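The records we work with from here on pair a chain with its fold. The integers have meaning only within a learned vocabulary of local backbone shapes. A complete example follows; check for yourself that the lines match position by position.

:::
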Amino acid sequence: MSILSKRPGAGLFTALAVILLTSVAAVQAKAAPIGASDAYGLGANLSILNVVSVSAGPFGEVSGTAPGAYNTSNTVLSVDENLGLVSNILGDYMQGLHTGVIETNASSDIPGATQAAAGATINDLNLGLMFAPSLPILDPLAILGLSADTIVSSSEVMDAGGLMAVGDTRIEGLGLSSGVLSLLGIDLGLAVDPGANTTLVDLLGLKIVLNEQITNDVGGNGLGLETNAIHISFDDFGLSVLGLGAGLLNGDVYVGHTYAEVALLADPGTPVNDVPEPAALGLFGVGLLGLGYGLRRHRGRKA
């Protein structure tokens, strides 16, 4: 028999200690995860010689954060933008951004199911890096043209016995128009259901990636996934017509951007200083009152 059990009131003290420890553990229970997601259909940020900058979008942007389940959507009927880049004596360079209907969605079930998701659908895409001659009798020249009938992008992060991320891109009717690119024999069949980070073009400062997927750690105990159905990047891409240069183009055009993340506020089993529940506070209070009464009674006996 232990020394503690031989002392008067030891059983009471032991029981009260158990109550106190139980209530503290309840107060320090693990908190719920947090989640966020966002999407947009089309966006562009471009610059010439890193001096002249132009941007458009993001079009159809939508987002949400959890806890607090959400399901938000956005619809844009069409996009019709021509971004003026630079001009010279021959004419004007511009980036055309044109679409039909854009539909986006962001959702999460937290604090129910531990997940967050985003999706984007773009119809009738037509992107054109163009040169418009000063002489009106001359037709515009397509330096780079990209079109598609339908583009669908999605990102989702979920807890399936551990956080996992899933991204997907589907493209119907992809077409490229460019004198240089047409000579490369690019297999556009890759675009129908492209694998993650499929590089379609990487040439002379122009890069086109399909189903671009980028994962990142969130808060050291979470996971995020960004999916871009089409990412066109320019890295000192030379703009020139008839040998007359107009500058170096830099920047990005994103089509079908989706992002989702889920973060756990603590490692499993690690106490978190969260707001205590009323039941836990009541249990803690009962333990304190009982302990105070037991000590007073014990001192009275000793006196």
